[in-house]
Amino acid sequence: MSNGSFRARIIWVIIFGVAMAFVESAIVVYLRAIFYPEGFGFPLKALVDYKILVEIMREAATIFMLLSVAYLAGRIRWERFAYFMLSFGVWDIFYYVWLKVLIDWPSSIFEWDILFLIPLPWIGPVIAPVSVALLMIVFSILMLRSFGKGRDFRPSAASHVLALAGTVIILYSFMHDLGATLHQRMPEPYRYDLLLAGDLLFIAAFTVSYIRTVRIS
What we know:
Blueprint: H1 3-35, H2 49-73, H3 77-103, E1 112-116, E2 122-125, H4 127-148, H5 157-175, H6 178-182, H7 192-216
């Protein structure tokens, strides 16, 4: 693949993530106007009947769209995974950028939000998903640069364990407060220690894999 074609794929995946983030944020603008006209905040009024199912299906469709673009952009498994991380990270960050532009929300990066609904509702301050998204973008760019130089990405067993541990810790930080997510209570203080631990595990997992890739290549 030529350098021009390689850069073009990255640029178009980024453009897709930015555009998709606008679609997502526009939907949320409508949802908040309909269901939270008095303002969005915790404790939250629960969506009922078929509406919550529609929202879950929309979120699942979003993930399939990101996977589809990654599959088309990449040639092999880890390259496709890198494109998925890139599109996901850009989409997640620009979702908040567009909300700030459209409705001047969030007021700060520590504002609480509903992050996802599958398999249980995820909640946390905006800085939490944004920190993970930033790591995804950095990791994906480094991986794609490696592929552009003809290197295959070679994660080790240790990196898989580290990444899995980081994922479990961060997901727990988002989903453990069932009182706030399922019973309309005020959320407990967010576990920033878990976020930090998860992010550090992600960094360690990628560093181990990247060093191994460079050495073997």
